[in-house]
Design goal:
76% helix, 2 strands, 2 domains
Length: 336
């Protein structure tokens, strides 16, 4: 019970510190859809964000802050106990008397209902049940395996209950669609028949790589950001015991600089670039929450603007070369 209460307290900081990463990911995904000839809707994007946050919610409740303290020596010392307590017999010890048993059963089911709902929503109608059950069971299995390494144990009952929760999410979507069919039709996408050029393929790959970089940076800096957000919480470790933010200081400016340049090539719209940079400044504020965090925010702001300026110069020089070539071609055709 204490573990669940502790992890529920972590949900709020996880939600807030991941907002910039989720927004950047979806903005890049929309641009990728554009290159692939896929038309998305506002409703679908809201649903996609909800699916991501359902994953974050599950990860926070099941793993909590334990993912921050992976230590090889600790794992070697305690993994034997975790393996010894693995339960692979279905329904063994599932029905327990008292509040703990009730919370365990219903908590494992309800936790996966939103995830199952949104997985089904983004699946083809004829494959919904298959995708939902596989996704629910697969995600639960991954979480159970991770728990072995954080001094908890793997239980087949949790996988059964989680999969049941995902299936109930699928059933909830079916019931909702029958009543509000017009509303749920707005979540569909339209794919136009478009032959991708080499340039479009390169852009799609570039956006995908950028998305991966964003999530890698998030993974590297997540511990510091959550700790900073939860500065006054007695449930979290003292910030004085945390190592200096060396990785953050090295990786975040590089991310800001690269994204600022790439955004110029992908979007070429000042408003979108400013929104992305604003999101990155928020990351800096969360990550470097100390007496000098305003100075670091100013540095990151300068770096992002520098990256934008360099991107502008590259685009302008590229356009000048293209115009020169066009003029030379037209000039040569006129004199032929």
């Amino acid at each position: 019970m204490l573990f669940i209460k502790h992890n529920l307290l972590l949900v709020v900081p996880f939600i807030f510190v991941l907002i910039p990463f989720v927004l950047i990911h979806r903005i890049l995904e929309i641009k990728k859809y554009h290159y692939l000839g896929i038309k998305t809707t506002r409703y679908r994007e809201v649903g996609a964000v909800a699916l991501i946050y359902s994953l974050i919610f599950i990860g926070t409740l099941t793993l909590g802050s334990s993912i921050f303290f992976f230590d090889l020596q600790f794992i070697v010392q305690h993994i034997h106990d975790s393996i010894k307590n693995i339960n692979i017999i279905p329904f063994k010890g599932m029905i327990e008397f008292g509040i703990h048993g009730v919370v365990n059963i219903f908590g494992n089911i309800f936790m996966f209902i939103p995830f199952g709902f949104f997985v089904a929503l983004f699946s083809k109608k004829d494959k919904r049940i298959k995708h939902t059950v596989i996704a629910g069971a697969g995600l639960s299995l991954v979480i159970e395996i991770i728990q072995i390494f954080v001094m908890r144990y793997m239980d087949i009952n949790d996988i059964i209950l989680n999969t049941l929760g995902a299936f109930l999410g699928f059933e909830l979507l079916n019931l909702s669609e029958k009543r509000f069919s017009n509303f749920f039709n707005k979540f569909s996408t339209n794919k136009t028949v478009k032959k991708l050029t080499l340039k479009d393929k390169i852009k799609v790959y570039a956006v995908t790589i950028l998305q991966i970089v964003v999530w890698i940076i998030m993974s590297v800096n997540l511990k510091q950001m959550v700790m900073s957000f939860y500065l006054k919480s007695t449930d979290m470790p003292n910030l004085n015991n945390i190592d200096p933010f060396k990785l953050t200081l090295l990786t975040l400016p590089l991310l800001v600089f690269i994204i600022s340049i790439v955004m110029q090539f992908i979007f070429r719209k000042r408003l979108i670039i400013l929104l992305i940079n604003f999101a990155l400044w928020m990351i800096a504020a969360f990550t470097l929450f100390n007496s000098n965090f305003l100075i670091y925010c100013f540095i990151y702001t300068f770096i992002s603007l520098l990256g934008t300026l360099i991107g502008d110069l590259i685009i302008k020089s590229k356009n000048k070369l293209i115009n020169k070539r066009r003029k030379s071609i037209t000039h040569s055709t006129l004199f032929k």
